[in-house]
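I would like you to sit down with the pair of lines that follows and say whether tokens and residues agree.
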Amino acid sequence: MKAKKPMKVIFLDFDGVMDTAYYGHILGKEDLPCHDEFGAVFDTNCVGYLKEIIEKTGADIVVTSSWKSLMTYRDILNMWKQRGLPGYVIDATPSSSGCRHRGDKIDAWLKECKEDCQYVILDDIDESNFNEHQLSRLIVVNPYHGLDKEAAERAIELLQSVGENNCIMTTC
């Protein structure tokens, strides 16, 4: 009998990962809008790297961004569709006040998950906001440039890795 492949998940922050100061500066210089009805426009380079990760791994997206406090899940789905963003947003981490930091919210989501999950975390905040067992799956990007080629390659490597240190959460 064949073992079921784990679900692949990208825990995705927006500000500093997809919405960058650099891109905002470029749009401002070209007198183009840096916001739409949903908020800051995402950097096209970052969107391209996210698309590459998804195409090469088949991963789905779980939103960790603070935007989930400002928008409903339906609004996030509408933004994804209207902006033509890649992949599927399958959920957002809980906004539980009982969680100390973002890492706890990711653990809470994984605990509620009904499948084994292999994941990466794309964020611009430092590792103190995550739990020790998540650090090998955390990719911290420079918030000025956001998701870049190096971070995308690392995410692909982590999502495609199978073996002893793959950090699959099996308690879902």
